[in-house]
Write a structure and sequence with these properties.
alpha+beta, 434 Repressor (Amino-terminal Domain), 6-stranded antiparallel sheet, 3-stranded antiparallel sheet, 5 helices, 23% strand, globular
């Protein structure tokens, strides 16, 4: 969900190859992959970039992210934050949630129009120092994009901004919500907010404690890349 004024936070592996001196071996490319979800997201980003006939340098220029970092993301060696995913998605003509959903295991033999149930341990996740977002639907087309957000960071960081309307409600904890151009609002359990597409928005813990929110965004219409 989100361009602004902060440095994107990411979780990454060591950039330089590390040698296990005890065993005398150097980690392989597969050894450096953060996890299976991060690998699948990277593969989707690479597929979309190539389909758009863009180089990593061009995507770096469009997103403000570094070329080496994007290369690490595509190979699954670094996990992009939700802010970074938003920038990458905009450059590739897709959505942040669409890229996140690509990290979920494929469901074979499922009718896309059939009702679906997502268990508590399921759903693509994007953990970072800004908290964790969990997609509350399986991968595939949906009319809206529901996300569960948890965190305890106190830095508002960079604004998210996208063309679709969005709604959020606080389930527990205290949240400081900053909508660009307005005074920040402190929200507690049961409080909610609705803002139009194009509104810069960001949030953090209002008191340093853990918060839990539900965020729902309209699904934009984008071209699907197979």
């Amino acid at each position: 969900m989100h361009p602004g004024t902060r440095t994107s936070t990411t979780t990454s592996t060591t950039a330089e190859p590390a040698t296990d001196t005890a065993a005398g071996t150097t980690p392989t490319d597969a050894d450096r992959v953060v996890d299976a979800q991060t690998r699948r997201i990277g593969e989707q980003i690479r597929a979309r970039r190539r389909a758009a006939r863009l180089t990593l340098v061009q995507v770096a220029a469009a997103t403000g992210l570094s070329h080496p970092f994007l290369s690490q993301v595509e190979r699954g060696h670094s996990r992009a934050s939700m802010v970074s995913l938003e920038k990458i998605a905009a450059a590739l003509g897709t959505t942040q949630v669409g890229l996140l959903a690509a990290g979920a295991p494929e469901r074979h033999g499922q009718d896309g129009a059939a009702p679906e149930v997502l268990r508590a341990g399921e759903g693509a996740r994007s953990p970072s120092s800004d908290g964790e977002a969990r997609l509350l639907v399986h991968a595939g087309p949906h009319a809206f994009e529901p996300l569960e957000w948890t965190g305890e960071h106190t830095d508002l960081g960079e604004y998210f901004e996208h063309g679709e309307d969005e709604f959020l409600t606080v389930l527990s904890g205290q949240v400081l919500l900053d909508l660009r151009g307005q005074e920040p609002s402190r929200l507690g359990p049961g409080d909610s907010a609705y803002y139009r597409g194009g509104t810069g928005h960001r949030w953090c813990s209002a008191d340093g404690g853990r918060f839990h929110m539900l965020v729902v965004k309209e699904t934009p219409r984008v071209e699907v890349v197979s």
